[in-house]
Every structure is written in structure tokens, then in C-alpha cells.
Automatic annotation (TrEMBL):
CDD domains: GST_C_Beta (cd03188), GST_N_Beta (cd03057). The lineage of its organism: Bacteria, Pseudomonadati, Pseudomonadota, Alphaproteobacteria, Hyphomicrobiales. One of its GO terms (molecular function) is transferase activity. PROSITE patterns: GST_CTER, GST_NTER. It comes from the Bacteria. This is Glutathione transferase GstA. It comes from Rhizobium sophoriradicis. It holds the Pfam family GST_C. SUPFAM superfamilies: GST C-terminal domain-like, Thioredoxin-like. Keywords: Transferase. InterPro entries: Glutathione-S-Trfase_C-like, Glutathione-S-Trfase_C_sf, Glutathione_S-Trfase, Glutathione_S-Trfase_N, GST_C, Thioredoxin-like_sf. Gene3D superfamilies: 1.20.1050.10, Glutaredoxin.
Amino acid sequence: MKLYMNAAACSLSPHIVCRELGLDIELVEVDRETHRTSGGEDYLTINGNGYVPALRLDDGKVLTEGPAIVQFLADSVPHGTAMLPELGNLRRNEVQSYLNFITAELHKPMVLLFNPAYATVHPEFRALVSKRLAWLNGRLAGPYLTGEAFTVADAYLFVCLNWSPWIEIDLKQWPALHGFMARVAARPKVREAMQAEDLEAFDAGGVFFAPHAYVASSGRTGSPVRP
Ligand SMILES: N[C@@H](CCC(=O)N[C@@H](CS)C(=O)NCC(=O)O)C(=O)O
């Protein structure tokens, strides 16, 4: 399988899921400006929307949309029920509920906070994201969103929360979420995925990750991640 991706973008979520499940994938980087892949393909012929992630299966079929991809990955192997419970188990629907919450209530408004074209409404979007994060913080009782098991929704949440420093959202105000980040960042397979995307911790707590070139630079101007 091939995973079309950008470092630290939402494609890191299916990347983490692949590694957690022990699935063999080839990472293919997509140039955001030219829509060319590292292998020279025109990415618009793979995903007409131009954004990552996309998953190309071994038979050539392509699946797009992060939340659908991570569910497909977990369903593709028997042990995937550890990350997405089986049909008929309400915990599966709880994981799906979180995937939908993350994609609609966090990911999309966070994307707008990266976009200077929306600068005039950034305070409102920041307030909205903060309200959602406060709610989530109050619900996070176990180590992970639905309890003891690290699910596909946790991988997605980790990736989105990792963007917070660049949109002026201080996660420390929500201790459960901050603790969640530290817990996920310490998972060996998550570390492996970040290493493969050349990401390094850039804060003292080792909770937020950015490309090596950004961490190593003295100025650290602009955003090193583009969701
Ligand atoms: N609805 C899509 C959104 C994907 C998305 O926003 N991808 C971003 C990276 S996190 C991207 O590639 N943006 C570039 C673009 O929109 O051209 C999904 O959930 O997969």
C-alpha cells in the first residue's frame, strides 16, 4: 500500500495507524504547490481534491478521507479490533463519533486558523476550538478517548493537537489533553512514524513535534506544519 502524505499533516494519523497495526506501507510525499508526488505522479489524478491523505491499495484502488482510511486500515486485519472494535460493539460507534468530532469540530476550524485570509475571524475560530477542547478535556477520563485502548481516533486527535502551538492555542490550560499528548508521543510506534516523517520534539516537554529543519533553525519563523 502507498500512503500519500505531508510531514506532520493529517496524513500522520493513518501513518501512525499503519505502524501500530504492523501494516507495510510506502510513504509518498506530495508537493503542496505543484501537486506532484515524490514519484513524479500528478497527485490530482489520485485525489482530485488535491489534499492528503490518500491510500493506494495493492490492487490500485484509491481511498481518500482520513477518517475512512483509518477505519479501512483497522478493519483490514483481525487484530485491528484493538484500534477499532468490531461491528455490533458500541465502542466502535464511540470511536466513529470521536473521528467525526475531530474532523468537523477540530480539524477544519484549526485549518482556518492557519490561513491568513481568515485573520479577521481568527479570534472567533480560536474561541470555538477552545470551547471544543475544554469539552474534550472534561471527557478524557482514561488514558485514551474511549478508555484503555489506543484507537484510530486517538491517532487523529494527537495529530490535530500537535498543531496547537502554531495557532496560538496553549494546550497546557487543559491538563488532560496535555497529558494525552505526552502519553501518545511516548508510544514506540508513534515515535517510529514521526521519525520516518523527520519530525522532532521542539518543546522542552517533548510533546509537540515539527520537521527537523524547523527545530534546527535558529529563527523558527512561520509555521512548519500545514494542515
Ligand atoms: N477532508 C480531508 C481533509 C484533508 C486535509 O485537510 N488535508 C490537508 C493536510 S492536513 C491538505 O492536504 N491540505 C492541502 C490542500 O487542501 O490543498 C480528510 O479528512 O482527509
